[in-house]
Amino acid sequence: MRPKTRPGLVVLLLLLLTATAPAPALQAEEIPARLAWADRLELGTPLSGTITRVLVNPGDRVRRGQPLIEMDTRALQAEEQQARAQEHRLRLARDEARREHDRTREMYDRTLIAERELALAEIARRMAEAEHQAAQAALTRVRLDLEHARVTAPMDARVIARHVAPGQLVHNALRVQPLLTLAADGPMLAVADVEAAVLDRLSPGTEVEVRVGDRRLAGRVRGLGLEPVDESLPRFRLEVVFSPPEALGLRAGLTAVVVLP
Predict the structure, then answer these.
(1) N or C terminus of the chain: which is more exposed, having fewer CB within 10 Å?
(2) Angstrom distance (rounded) from CA 19 to CA 12
(3) What is the DSSP string of 44-82?
């Protein structure tokens, strides 16, 4: 005769097994992303003129202050010489007007001349000083244009694109024409388009993982989009900044995966 199974004992055993069984591990969420430059700059100059030399090519690494593009400066050098001569002439005239004013003031104090003559000397001195200041400003403006004729790197960067060639005329009166596109050395972005619910779980500075191929890199959330990427699809931009080793040779546009905690 088979022993009878007590139902209460079976239920108790099932409850004990359920309580002691390990909880299923939470799966990290993986989001497809694409790489982008963290700091991208279109470099130009306010000066109009002819390009004489382009010293870099796409792919080159440049250092802060390194010359990148040179423009024809012959006309500017002539203007600088003229402005320097004008400033020198008006400086002499200003100094003479000051001396004349001092002499007139002394004679007025000795009651040898009328007050009107002192007033005229004061006017002449102020006019000479104003003309000299205008000449100084003109000289400074020409020298600034000469600086703008030599475009240098504002930061350590990589050259992404070159938009001009030697002999090309650039006209920047209404809008500055880009000459080069640079990307700053260092951090890159992993950019993904996600639903609003994903962004609600994150905040700037949240630590995440970026996976590029078989490399896993530490990253953190830099930007949470407030407007949809596409009006027809309610998805928002997620930006994760990370610092890849230079040896990886990563480029913008490559695919990546953002692993959320």
Answers:
(1) N
(2) 11
(3) --S--EEEEEE---TT-EE-TT-EEEEE--HHHHHHHHH
Which class is domain 29-39+186-260? mainly beta
- 197 burial (CB, 10 Å; 0-12 / 13-18 / 19+) is exposed
Domain residue ranges in the chain: 29-39+186-260, 40-71+149-184, 74-148
Question: Which residues are registered as beta bridge partners of 158?
Answer: 61, 183
- The pair of three-digit structure tokens given for residue 118, joined into one six-digit string: 């002192």
Rounded to two decimals, the pTM is 0.75
- Residue 45 predicted with pLDDT over 60: yes
User: Does residue 207 contact residue 220 with C-beta atoms inside 8 Å?
Assistant: yes
Query: Are the CB atoms for 108 and 115 separated by under 8 Å?
Result: yes
Q: Kindly report, residue by residue over 209-249, the tens digit of the pLDDT.
A: 999 999 999 999 999 999 999 888 889 999 999 999 988 88
Question: What token pair was written down for 106?
Answer: 């002394």
CATH number of 40-71+149-184: 2.40.50.100
Q: Note the pLDDT tens digit of each residue in 69-111.
A: 999 999 999 999 999 999 999 999 999 999 999 999 999 999 8
User: Domain 74-148 - what CATH class?
Assistant: mainly alpha
Residue 10 pLDDT > 50, yes or no?
A: no
Distance of CA 81 to the CA centre of its chain: 34
Which of the residue ranges 14-18, 174-178, 235-239 would you say has the lowest mean pLDDT? 14-18
